[in-house]
Prior knowledge:
The chain is mostly helical. About 80% of the residues lie in helices and about 0% in strands. Helix 3 packs across helix 13 (about 255-280), helix 4 packs across helix 5 (about 75-85) and helix 14 packs antiparallel against helix 15. It is globular, with a radius of gyration of 21 Å.
Amino acid sequence: MVEKNKRIHGVWDNHWTYICAAAGSSIGLGALWKFPYLVGEHGGAEFVLLYLLFTLVLGLPLLLAETTLGRRARQSPVNAIRYLSRESGLSQKWAALGWLGVITGLLILSYYSVVAGWSIQYLLDTATGSLQAKNVNDHAEHFRLLLDNPNQMMTWQSAFILCSVLVVMRGVHKGLGNAVRWLVPIMLVLLLVLINFSYQQGGLELAARFMFDVDWSQLTASTTLAALGLACFTLSIGVGSMMAYGAYMPDHPPVARNLLVVTLIGLLVAVGFGIVVFSIVTSNPEVDTSTGPGLIFVTLPWAFANMSGGLLWGALFFLMALLAAWSSAISLLEPAVAWLVESTRCNRFFASLLAGLAAWALGLGTIFSFNRWLGDFNFYGMVDTLTSSLLLPVSALLIAIFVGWRVRSTLLREELHTEPHWLYMIWTGLIKFICPLAIAIILASGIYQLSGEYL
Ligand code: PHE
């Protein structure tokens, strides 16, 4: 069965391709768009430090857990959980955990593709020089005009989903593998170029102070939950993407070491990009850092327009956002596509179209929530909060319980036989005790505070 599934989907060419795939999934709008605006909204350094802590102490062990499940079963997340439940003599109801991931992934992709569409528009606007207004209000108006135009947003959203579907359609080897081998190195080079740019602008020090000067008295439960949600989001945990990618791993990889590299690349990009954004933003004293999701689409273009060569840097910035979104979107589609291929008679071509279509249709809700559906009910806000603050942490919690307490530990040890004993013991301790406990506490207190804010 395991061998048969290896043949259905294929495996990554080598470890490097796997690292690129996982890093490509991790580097995305989470680091480039959410991270800067959440840091701005939640007051800076406390949020950054919590995010770093959660990524290393909770995220990394969960990443290893998801990857190990996928690698053991070599199937789509839904079937992988079913397979491991069977191997461990558990109820098949655990498969719901796989479904939770698939649904969360499509929900995330639905708004993700709209934001990626904004990046396409801004890439064109900066590259063609139509974003030269010097006044911040003009930039706010420019963004509002885009949000007011559902047809324009739909065009870019559809183009983006189509590009992602085209990659997934070609399979693990020719599609995903080939794409990430190019995308990830290009993104890392772009990041270095942008960091060098902020260094030359002289804003690095202010940005570093903004991001690392801590004031714990500002800490709230919802900030903590937001940091946990973001750590899961940027590591692609809780959606099944890493389970699917683990299923395509070549034999005998140094799993833990590979995942450490992936996590460090993800952190480097988030912090590096945060520094780029805040060095541009904080060197402009009139700029408000807490402008929310519009931060990189209003404040930043305005700052770029007021700098020499700003249009070129702006174009590179949005190009990076777009490539990062693309390399993540393919991993958001893969769990649903892999399931369709395994469990129905659908081939990869139709499976990719079907999953893309579902995300596209859901995305219309996000598009219309900025124009046609204005009112108390904000569909986009609901999907974003629901996925980041509830579904991802809940899914992470269930994975920790499943792997830490339910799956037979001999199976896990067998799968991780290449890892040293001490590492395995530390991981077991984290996944059994620390992860479930910490996530449950953060989730409960965050939801309590959020419900107070919403009700
Ligand atoms: N990690 C991606 C980002 O930071 C988003 C993502 C989440 C991708 C879950 C796959 C699965 O943008």
